[in-house]
Amino acid sequence: MATDMEVVQQGTVAVNGCCKKGPGYASPLEAMAGPKESLIYVTCIYTGTGRGKPDYLATVDVDPNSPSYSKVIHRLPMPYEGDELHHSGWNSCSSCYGDPSAARRYLVLPSLVSGRIYAIDTQKDPRAPSLYKVVQPDDIIQKTGLAFPHTAHCLASGEIMVSCLGDKDGNAEGNGFLLLDSDFNVKGRWEKPGHSPLFGYDFWYQPRHNTMISSTWGAPSAFTKGFNLQHVTDGLYGRHLHVYTWPGGELKQTLDLGNTGLLPLEVRFLHNPSEAIGYVGCALTSNMVRFFKNPDGSWGHEVAISVKPVKVQNWILPEMPGLITDFLISLDDRFLYLANWLHGDIRQYNIEDPAHPKLTGQVFVGGVFQKGNAVLAEAEDGSTYQVDVPEIQGHRLRGGPQMIQLSLDGKRLYATNSLFSTWDRQFYPEMMEKGGHMLQIDVDTEKGGLAVNPNFFVDFGAEPDGPSLVHEMRYPGGDCTSDIWI
Fold it and tell me: For the chain, what is the mean pLDDT?
């Protein structure tokens, strides 16, 4: 793992650790010792709710010593309606640590439905970010043919790379990877011609192994209409990982995850840049699949964690998958956390032996079969049950845990509850009327364990312009799901 004095080599740049640094941290372990978070940025969505308002970026105070703790202290509305802000990333991160001219200044907000990409200036006033630039979809489509932008990662070159899930008509065949320069001008596609994946979604690169791996949600023409199991049968959803040369952009291997790996979403390598191991969360089959480099340089995969489906009554299917929609890995690569959006639980696994994760913590913070809902879960003996979910500050928890974010020191886990407006409406219709919320869970990093913090609850059902949905979270100083080390 890189140390503070290690020489970072990237292209023609060689910067010794004793000199002026770029953004981020020299290593994941140094990041763990970074300052405690005091602010968090959250993407908030009105698209799909029928409220006729633009989506916005909320700044939430997460400093327990502040008088505005657990409150939204600023809202930056986008200039257009209908965006569906989703994931977010940074213009620079720890991959640029060796470049003293780089700065983690702009938060990159791709809009999954409209195709716009916003650059938000967080440096002028971190508590009240401002709009810096809009990349219009017509410009992206004209120069690259790409649409439905999803994941943004900063590159050590200073460029920004964004995975796009389809073409302007929602066909998965048109997907690929968009490159923006450091001032958010469209440069073109990253992958070599003829090397576009079958489907798109998330990606993560591991430069010391000259590898980037991407995952495969589905065709925008399918998932934007809501989830239909027939679309899986029709081949409109993915089950593959795509392995690329980095930074070359050549598709060198496709891993078919089969029926145990349907709808592979978030993909993450271990943070230690020397490791050739990572995981992908497969939503529909609710498996965590581990991928790894073989001695011959090829990549293999195996199921590392299985969340068993639950037999249910009064639901659309007789069995309910957990629906793993997000996961992350602590910066020291000791723990993996995952969210089961339908079952309603967040889990903590010890992955010090990456091939054999051990469940060390679990907490229910929502879900379809929580007490008070119509859906009943069936035990093996045929009896029925529902899960006790705590109220927080008098609020009944809505929906299920969806996006999660971990503090740098690994001791606080934040969770929001919106997946995608169309799917929210389908599976948790009350969220359309009551909005989303954000929780904080205390983490035991010694023995393992999770506990809801009763002092933290952000109710996005009480927003000035009406209840909004909430999705991705980012700290101004970077986090374990945005920073990649070289």
Answer: 95
| pLDDT tens figures, 32-89 | 999 999 999 999 999 999 999 999 999 999 999 999 999 999 999 999 999 999 999 9
DSSP 3-state of 126: coil
Whether the Cβ atoms of residue 326 and residue 286 lie closer than 8 Å to each other = no
**Torsion sign, CA atoms 184, 190, 196, 202:** negative
* Spatial separation of the C-alpha atoms in residues 299 and 288, rounded to whole Å: 16
**Rounded CA gap, 397 and 386, in Å?**
14
**C-alpha torsion 294→204→263→201, nearest 10:** -140
For 477-482, what is the mean pLDDT?
A: 95
- Per-residue pLDDT of 166-179, as tens digits, reads 999 999 999 999 99
DSSP bridge pairs for 232: none
Q: What is the dihedral of CA 319, 322, 323, 326, to 10 degrees?
A: 180
Q: Report the run of H or E that residue 140 belongs to, with start and end.
A: helix 137-144
Estimate to the nearest angstrom the gap between the alpha carbon of 356 and the chain centroid.
23
Q: Locate tokens 């339908």: which residue? A: 342
What is the spatial distance between Cα 44 and Cα 416, in angstroms, rounded to a whole number? 10
SS3 139: helix
Segment (H or E) for 256: strand 251-256
Cα–Cα distance measured from residue 394 to residue 355, given in angstroms and rounded to the nearest whole number: 41
Q: Rounded distance, CA 129 to CA 167, Å?
A: 31
Q: Is 375 helix (H, G, I), strand (E, B) or coil?
A: coil
By DSSP bridging, strand 39-45 and strand 56-61 are antiparallel
Q: Do residues 246 and 294 make contact, with C-beta atoms less than 8 angstroms apart?
A: no
Q: Is the dihedral of CA 200, 206, 207, 211 positive or negative?
A: negative
pTM of the model: 0.95
